[in-house]
Amino acid sequence: MRCADGSWSCQAGQFFLLRSNTGWSPYLRRALFPSFIDSNEIGFIIRPSQDPVMGWLAAQPVGTALDLIGPLGRGFVTDDHQRRILLVAEDASVAALLALIQSALARQLSITLLHHARQPADLLPPSMLPPAVEYYTSCAEESSGLPDVMDDELARALNWADGLFVAGSAAFLGRVKTAVAAARFALARGFGQAIAPVPLSCGVGACLACLVDTGRGLHRACVRGPVFDLGDLAL
Q: For site-directed labelling of 14, which of 69, 75, 184, 230 has its Cα 20 to 30 A away?
């Protein structure tokens, strides 16, 4: 997607709110995380969904003007000392992490992506990733024929990673936190960042649907996030 004024100012982990041209229903906009960010172009991965807004978007021809608000929130932050980063995602939330890859490769970082899904059809095709990205998959559905090796692969990768970026459900984030504590004895502040698994409805925190419990109080993810230190999220 191209910006009308020719430039974007966006970072991985920030989001946009999309309004469909289908009338007043559905009323709320939908949060979209860019998977590709360039100075004058951003890209989104749209997967099959029962959501009418996503269905409408997938059916639009090239050249359709979209009503977007954003970028909103605070995104991921990478440090200069990082050399080996680990991306861990569940199901469709992997799209929000892909925007990290381009800038990380430009800095010559080593990147490993671990994608866990309910079924094989939900896994990201390897062809969508640069060859330099080390990619592992695991599947929760027993009938898929694919083993659920997430915990083993995650434990192995955590031995060398100096930065962790996570996206998924609250249960998934809790599983990752447990794995980090087991592999590294503690979850140090600044090591892991995660997108809070809450609705992002209004974009300004006014509706309070995005409240996140950090263990030290409630914060509005639309304003203070949606990216938080993984250790701050009370899951």
A: 184
